[in-house]
From TrEMBL:
This is Dihydrodipicolinate synthase. Pyruvate binds at residue 205. Gene3D superfamilies: Aldolase class I. The lineage of its organism: Bacteria, Bacillati, Actinomycetota, Actinomycetes, Kitasatosporales. The active site is at residues 136, 164.
Length: 296
């Protein structure tokens, strides 16, 4: 971890443990954050999609950030601050700063298909919070695409310092590096980890380390270090799981894998429904196979 670029390394987009009544189990969440760091991860990203932020109350959302900071220190916590309105996102960024965080992650406006002017204004507003902002490009879900040219403009105007790239188009890594060489590229989807690591990624906002942190960290370190003899077999071994991170049911899948390995994944809040039987069987089998092969 570095003080000025705390988004570098493996930052886990944390799943949020819920009780049977679907209330948040903050004690389990604190323990989970500490367990991830203890198993080699560099930090956590609470209140991302994997953390079900959309269905949390404001009080829950704030407490999740405070819980993570108390567990592992604010320099290791980069909360998601997405909201429908720019003013609300800025308030979440300010809350993160008050809690001790050193950076935040921000989706573009996602209440509607925003144009470039709206995107620029949105990031400018949240940047006024004073914390470094990492953009999150997820055109599949938001319908707003932070293409390399727009990312370069956002970076050039001082609104963002990095980008979590979830488009799935690994070719963009090279264009981003050409247009904004100082903009840190973060791997945004688990199933393109190797491709983006080889292309120069500086970090990974990761899903599957929630269940398999040590193997995931080993894969990331080998990949960014150019050790393909280590990385490629491990990537092939884990890819049947990693690809769930890019599927609609990614939260349910990762939580199930956590249950399989003896962690607390547990239920999701509606409207997320339980996995179908064939989906559950596939995730369970892939997780058990990975564990049997030595991944953990």
């Amino acid at each position: 971890m570095t003080d000025h670029r705390p988004w570098r390394g493996v930052l886990v987009a944390t799943a949020l443990p819920l009780n049977d009544d679907l209330s948040v189990n903050y004690d389990r969440y604190a323990e989970h954050c500490a367990w991830l760091v203890g198993n080699g991860c560099d930090g956590v990203v609470p209140n991302g999609s994997l953390g079900e932020y959309q269905v949390l109350t404001p009080e829950e959302r704030a407490r999740v950030v405070e819980t993570a900071v108390a567990a592992i220190g604010g320099e290791r916590v980069m909360p998601g601050v997405a909201a429908y309105g720019s003013a609300e996102s800025r308030r979440w960024a300010e809350q993160a700063g008050e809690a001790g965080c050193r950076a935040v992650m921000l989706l573009p406006p996602n209440a509607y298909r925003a144009d470039e002017r709206s995107v620029l204004a949105h990031y400018a507003e949240v940047a006024r919070s004073g914390l470094p902002v990492v953009a999150y490009n997820n055109p599949i879900d938001t319908k707003v695409d932070l293409v390399p040219e727009l990312l370069a403009r956002l970076h050039g105007e001082g609104h963002i310092r990095g980008v979590k790239e979830f488009s799935g188009d690994v070719r963009r890594a090279y264009r981003i590096a050409e247009l904004a060489p100082e903009l840190d590229l973060l791997i945004g989807a688990d199933d393109v980890l190797l491709e983006l690591a080889v292309a120069g990624a500086k970090g990974w906002v990761a899903g599957y380390p929630n269940a398999l942190p040590r193997a995931s960290v080993e894969l990331y370190r080998a990949a960014v270090g150019g050790d393909l003899d280590t990385a490629l077999p491990l990537y092939r071994q884990l890819h049947p799981l990693l690809r769930w991170d890019s599927r609609v049911e990614f939260v349910q899948a990762i939580k199930l894998s956590m249950d399989v390995v003896g962690r607390h994944g547990g239920p999701c809040r509606p409207p997320r429904a339980a996995l179908l039987p064939d989906q559950e069987a596939a995730v369970r089998a892939a997780t058990e196979k990975a564990v049997a092969a030595g991944s953990s």
